[in-house]
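In this section we walk through a basic example: taking a raw amino acid sequence and producing a predicted 3D structure, encoded as discrete structure tokens. The instruction is simple. Fold the sequence below.
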Amino acid sequence: MQLSRFPRVSLAHLPTPLEHMPRLSEHLGGPDIFVKRDDCTGLATGGNKTRKLEFSMGEAVQKGADTIITVGAIQSNHVRQTAAAACKLGMKCEVLLEHRVGEPSETYTTSGNVFLDRVFGANLREYPGGTDFETEMQAVTREIADGGGMPYVVPGGASNPVGALGYVGCGIELLEQFGEQDLQVDHIVSATGSAGTHAGLVVGLRGSGSDLPILGFGVNAPQDVQEERVYKLALATAELVGAPDCVSRDDIIADCNYIGPGYGQTTESMNEAILMLARLEGLLFDPVYSGKALAGMIDYIRKGHFTAGQKIVFLHTGGSAGLFAYADALTL
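The resulting token sequence is shown next.
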């Protein structure tokens, strides 16, 4: 899998650290837990989308784009990083923001990621939840083109085969770090949402000959829907990198029992997980993605699904800027 043949721009600080979390491991009394610090990618407070945007924006530059169009929820980590990437490359950024959370507070709608979107000068267009964004994105694309611009669309989460290349690279990077640190890892755990991170990681590992299991904790969809979403994107990504037979349906596992009342809505277990990591390891996680995945991993350890003697790697996808939007919702 030669990623060097794909257009790419440099946005991320790579490789990101792989760190042991001794106090968390001791506190839970189960496996040794490590964290892959993709919150340290560097762009606009960091996060997993930066890896994807290296390839998405690389293709945009290759095609001569001057305006990036993308979509996300009000507190989208992806939108924040995309707006920053557009600034770095001298492009305009048009954002379609979806109101997914019912009855949000003023703090939620004005601070955190959406505040940073405005700092980066993105043009924000707001839409109600459930909007047909494929149609709306096409309309904005025509608007920009009719005005003489050269638009390029980055889908939500940069989760298409081009964006997923970023996590093919992360899978390869992880295997190299395991070798350097002489780690025999038993499981990788991550949040799974728009699917690009999960799908790319599976392709990166399987395409490199690793059968290391990956567990995604869902944040917005039922298990069957999420697994099919990831599998479909993994197949397309594997085809793109020239490894079409490396992924099987059994490779895709998502547990969607920790979503709570809905996307972006708080849960007690997420709240506990965020405070636990902050106070034991000095690490910040976000309420929407990594916080709920952490809650799932912690529950798995408490129930004995992950046990002493094992080594677990948690992929930290970033998003700490979103914590500020939940300042009046979290119990401290």
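Looking at the output, two observations stand out. The domain at 3-48+160-326 is CATH 3.40.50.1100 (Rossmann fold). The chain has two domains: 3-48+160-326, 49-156. In the next section we compare this with other chains.
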